[in-house]
Each structure stands twice: as structure tokens, then as C-alpha cells.
Amino acid sequence: MATKNIMIVGVGGQGTLLASRILGNAVIREGYDVKVSEVHGMSQRGGSVVTYVKYGDKVFSPIIDKGEADIILAFERLEAMRALPFLKKGGKIILNDRAIAPMPVITGAAQYPQNIVEDLSKLTDITAVDALALSLEAGSSKAVNVVLIGVLAKSTDISKDVWLEVIKQTVPEKFLELNLKAFELGYAYEG
């Protein structure tokens, strides 16, 4: 199998690291070689967080260079736009259609870009989902990450049963029911 490159982007506190663990565990379970590399900006202060997940028969490096990502899983609009140069021609963006203002916008030093989803959809295949609304339907705003994993799961060759089993093994018991529901809502999303 050719190496698959998935880039997960968001801001600190959104659960991108749990999402990368679930993805990594799912591809390991399928017998692939996987490399994961986490790049933390000012994640504790709402700064950018990027995780590279590469998997295939044999993976030599965890880094995804510009133009190599098959899929960008974006937890926030502006982060999707920032990651666009990494998407390969014919790649796909799965996007949480929410805006989280970075510090320059909060302080008034900059304006949040308008029409990000529309602009991105002119350039590539994009699935924009209101993952926050679906996570609230599941029972908590903190399940956005697993909703997005559910949407992503349909773009992989990994069976739904494997994803569900990995979530059961990765998520703490007290949050399991919530996260399984969040995954199902993401998986069922038609966008």
C-alpha cells in the first residue's frame, strides 16, 4: 500500500492529540506501519497544534511536507487555511466549520478572514461539518474531536468496527458512551 498522509490541525484544547491517538491506533490495528509526529505551538494558550500521521506498508519519516497530505483534518477554519499548502493535488479537507479567534484577532491587531470555507471549496474537495453542533447532540462540546474522527473514518479503508473497537480501547470508560455517540454522528454525516 502506498503511504497515506493525514495532517490534523487545530488549536490547543480541542482534542487533536486524542484524535491522532485514535487514528494511529486504528491504522496499527489494521497492520500498517505508522509514524506520528506532534508539533505544538502555543497550544496551552490557544495556539496552533499540528499532528502528522503517516501510514502504509513501510513508513520511514513522520513528517509531511508541503504538497503531500492526502487529507487535512481541520478542527478550525483558519487552521485549515494555514494548512492548505500541505495538501496534495486531489487531496481532501475535512473541516469543523467553526471559527476560533487567534490572539491577534482577540486583541484587535488583525481581522479574522471571511469566507474561508467558500474560498477553500474553490480550490479542493472539502467536507465542512458543524462538529460542535453534533458533539452537543452527543452530549458534550468536548466531543468535537471524535465527531471529526467519525467523518474522517468514512474517507479511509478502515472498517467502522475497527474504529469503534479502537475508541473503546482509547477513551476513558467514563467518557466512552459520549464518544461512541459522537463517532456515530460524525460517521453518519452526509456533507
Please give a structural write-up:
It is a single chain. The protein has 191 residues and is an alpha/beta fold. 38% of the residues lie in helices and 24% in strands. The protein is built from eight helices and six strands; from the N terminus they run βαβββαβααβαααα. It has helices at 16-29, 77-83, 103-106, 116-121, 131-138, 144-153, 160-170, 176-188, and strands at residues 4-11, 33-40, 48-56, 69-74, 87-96, 125-129. The chain has a six-stranded mixed sheet, sandwiched between helices. Helix 1 crosses helix 7 and helix 5 crosses helix 8 (176-188). The protein is globular and about 45 Å long. The mean pLDDT is 92.
Q: Any guess at the CATH architecture?
A: 3-Layer(aba) Sandwich
The number of helical elements comes to 8
The 3D shape can be described as: globular
Major pleated sheet: 6 strands, mixed
Question: Roughly what is the average pLDDT, rounded to an integer?
Answer: 92
Give, in spatial order, the strands making up the sheet with the most strands.
Answer: 2-3-1-4-5-6
Radius of gyration: 16 Å
